[in-house]
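Late entry, evening session. Most of the bench is empty. Finally got around to the prediction I had been postponing all week. Sequence below, unchanged from the version circulated by S.P.
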Amino acid sequence: MVDGWEWDETLFAGSAAYYRRGRLPYAPGLADALAGALRLDGRGRLLDVGCGPGTLALALAHLFDEVVGVDPDGGMIAEAGRVAAEEALAGKARWVRARAEELPAGPALGTFCVAVFGQSFHWMDQDRVATAVRSMLRSGGALVHVSDLKGEVRDVAGLPHPAVPRAAIDELVRRYLGPQRRAGQGVLPHGTPGGEAAVFARAGFAGPRRLVVPGGQPLERDCDDVVAGVFSMSASTPHLFGAERDGFEADLRALLRQASAAGRFSERQPGTEVHLWWRDPAQPSPAG
């Protein structure tokens, strides 16, 4: 957990509806890369811890008999259920509103062959959650930590539209919300923690094995996409702006129109970085 900051249930309040449109997807090929590395064959159970609106769990659902997503935000859980029904996956997906810190005692979810964290682990009491999740993995099971590939350059040279003006957007957010990054009812002056490898090792996991799923594919975004992306972030969820929310959105859209008269932006698909950890020192297949 971040020093000087405490989790509260407003962290992502009101942001769930913006995720599908606003967040850039994981790199194409992520599911295939995991299927190959873990020899997944459509059997077994997946636990997605901090599942949000089900983005990762649903993308991997075809690799398992059942996926279970856990998230403390009621809006995220509702959105995950809605999308699962829309994609005809409701029969193999279960969504549980709970904090990761409540695992494994409540709710009782059983055992899993794979547990995944999709850019969520940094919000948790990491040592406590890692130990709990290891206890929920069957022998030979794997923990999968997924994030955007750090440090890559994703310029839009040669693409038809301007880049999203991220520095200007960040400055606008600071003008409304102050210089320190907001997060729920608190602030994160130094950002969220890293050091996941040390945490997983302390919890008894073996590994890691690193996979990189390349991105770079051109993406086109419109103003609504960019606005949704801003409101999907913990540092700029809609409720943080209070009575100034509409004013902020109007200023944001004006900034975007100034950056692109056509209201179109080019981006490149981020690469995805994966670290695989095993419950046991031997690394048998978690499938089945």
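Two things to note before I forget:
The first strand starts at residue 45 and ends at 49.
The mean pLDDT is 93.
Will write this up properly tomorrow.
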